[in-house]
Amino acid sequence: MRLFLLVLSAALANAVPQEIPWSPPGPNDVRSPCPVLNALANHDILQHNGKDITEQDTIRAMDALHVDKELSETLFAAALKTNLKPNATTYSLDDLDHHNIIEHDGSLSRGDYYFGDNHSFNQTLFDQVKSYWTEPLIDLHLGAKARLAGVNRSKATNPTFDLSGFRLRFSYAQTATYILVFGDKISGTVNKTWIEYLFEKERLPVELGWEKRENIITTADLDSMIERVMKATKEIETLQEA
């Protein structure tokens, strides 16, 4: 695994896009509602079976996206809560299916728990979301607009809809994360084709030209991007109410 990550880091740091090993999950592998974690497992950056992921596994995998150690530890701590076994020290990707821990209503690409499948990629729902990405670059406005449309759809159709408290922050974080990891954190923009590729193929968009970010991604970066998505959302809601 360490040798593979060294090879991966070299590939992602190279200015010329290169393919990195990828294979879909096998019959005994597990995956999550999160396309980024699934992509990391499909690339064997996280263990391909998606099971028994430790804190060190998480830190090493997040380093492939240039996420710093502190934020990686925070992400691991959140994921660990989805393992409902007492005194758990690892999590598996399908633990993230547990509703209203990290997984939440109004996802960009998954159905709500109420409808029976909050795990599998839902092309119909994702087509609705990406219809709001009307420019080659997704900016904060388009990202917030797509997210809000998904939330409003869920609110209108799911009688148990709940996006209160920390769930709301996780919802904003979903949009903030794809902009931050795959885009430009200064302008708050990201290549639309990269994000469509990531969600639909659960594969890092290296062959489309994405490269590992030069600047490391910190907790402060994520908090800032979440706040920017929240601000863009409020601006959209204000216009809709006018």
Automatic annotation (TrEMBL):
Family as reported in the entry's similarity comment: Belongs to the chloroperoxidase family.
Q: Which PANTHER family match?
A: PEROXIDASE STCC (PTHR33577:SF9), STERIGMATOCYSTIN BIOSYNTHESIS PEROXIDASE STCC-RELATED (PTHR33577)
Signal sequence extent: 1-15
Q: Which GO terms describe its molecular function?
A: metal ion binding; peroxidase activity
Q: Which domain of life is it from?
A: Eukaryota
Q: Which Pfam families match?
A: Peroxidase_2 (PF01328)
The membrane-spanning stretches of this chain are: none
Source organism per UniProt: Aspergillus caelatus
Question: Which UniProt keywords are listed?
Answer: Heme, Iron, Metal-binding, Oxidoreductase, Peroxidase, Signal
Q: Does the keyword Heme apply?
A: yes
In this chain the Heme haloperoxidase family profile domain maps to 18-224
Q: What is this protein called?
A: Chloroperoxidase
Named cofactor requirement(s):
heme b
